[in-house]
Amino acid sequence: MDKSLLLLLITLAVGTTQAQTANIPPATTATTRATPARAASTDPDAIRIVLTPELETTLVTQMPGRIETIAATLGSHVSKGRPVLQMDCAEADARRKMADAELAAAVETLDTKRKLKEMDAAGDMELKLARATADKARGAVALARSQTAYCIVSAPFSGRVAKLYVKPYQGVSAGAPLMDLVSNGPLKLRLNIPSTYLRQIREGSPFEVAVLETGKTYPAKVTAINSRVDAVSQTVEIEGRLQGTPAELLPGMSGVARFPGTP
User: Fold this and answer.
1) What does the alpha-carbon distance between residue 23 and residue 34 come to, in Å, rounded to a whole number?
2) For the segment 70-79, what is each residue's pLDDT rounded down to a tens digit?
């Protein structure tokens, strides 16, 4: 083949390839912008926090038996002193009535012994035994009434139900967990900070909290500082409190803390 013809074919091929390449639109690069809270949560040096309620507890049954009614549901609000669960009290009521009857009989016997003692028809020992029997019966009545009170479980503080462990008509033993209760009000913050931060952080020091679940930042202040530094991690545990009660925040949420004037 003639060299000039071969050179011409190569030139045409290169030109066609460049034209096709020029017609291909440039690829777009997808970019995502993380929220400040999410971006900070991926920082290995970030100070992580956990939101905790002021008060939290697990209510337990103090008597074995069958659950009759549950007056609270998951997430529902309960007021302090409000009954949240009732046990079947038939047996406890029967024991209380028996104790009342035994007390009445013991008191009657004691009164009789006193009258007989006045007529010198009974001795001091008989009177002392009758008095001891009456005192024992009074103790049995107090015990029966306290056991009857166990039939109704009331909320020790105002808050919300975080977890239910039982269902109506379920049989439970003494000490069985019934429900978790968390208090209302401002949430506490628990976090560990580098011990070097103690140079400028005191109780009452302000800081900010970026909560991962909401993507928002909230003001807070230090309320307590542990009296001991962890020698291994060189950190110290502190507690803080959010300013106000944002409705969207719940116990168990997490995020990161930012202190003014720190790296």
Assistant:
1) 34
2) 999 998 999 9
